[in-house]
Amino acid sequence: SCPGQLSGSSVLCQVVISVFVAGENFDQSPLRRTFKSKVLAHYPQNIEWNPFDQDAVNMLCMPKGLSFRTQADNRDPQLHSFIITREDGSRTYGFVLTFYEEVTSKQICTAMQTLYQMHNAEQYSSVCASSSCSMDSLASSIDEGDATSLAKLQRYNSYDISRDTLYVSKCICLITPLPFMQACKKFLIQLYKAVTSQQPPPLPLESYIHNILYEVPLPPPGRSLKFYGVYEPIICQRPGPNELPLSDYPLREVFELLGLENLVQVFTCVLLEMQILLYSQ
User: Fold this and answer.
1) CATH number at residue 25
2) What is this structure's pTM?
3) Domain range spanning residue 200?
4) Rounded Cα gap, residues 62 and 237, in angstroms
5) pLDDT tens digit string along 134-169?
């Protein structure tokens, strides 16, 4: 993750990287379960005006927990944002890019296959119980419909260490004092491309992170700032004192997610000062 300067020695944002610890949701197949994550690293280690809340950031970076995928699953990077509001009303904003990284640990791959063997055994037991038969006579007792369903389940929702490539979710996050969504989004995407590209960028990755942490200043009110990311320049703009607060989120996405009628209804509720609850996964 990364930052820039707030004023002289202050930092604009922080960087966080998260990964795997242990699993839950045992009724689902292992590749569909959620797993606990943890913060691997964050930079800088301490900021006086913005102490790092490891538990909150970890939960907000991966609200659904850690997940595993194989080469057959969709592994496109995903972006989301969050807000941390403290007791005094101050806010910090997080922008997260979640991607999937190949698991190189033989131990984790073996553990995933073991989980699948246990899960498949439980599936056989449940089918057997529903058919009122014993494990020894399972093959001859299950009806054709149950056998077909079970075969499909194992074919489309399985993991074989000798055949499949295992991937685990990981994220990089920028924590900032202002919601510069577009600038943070562009920087995270460029940083991700630099990490995954076969051809390394012109400078070491640490140089780009150090630049945005310590050399990119926060734009003065009413001014815009252009700085260089990993591959392309990035521009962010800060409203003046008499302008509306910074809202860097694209309005088009609101229409796409809510639809015209729902958006008009929400806007009406805002004008009437009604309470509004948005529920989302």
Assistant:
1) 3.30.450
2) 0.75
3) 14-105+162-243
4) 28
5) 545 544 544 555 555 555 555 555 788 888 899 999
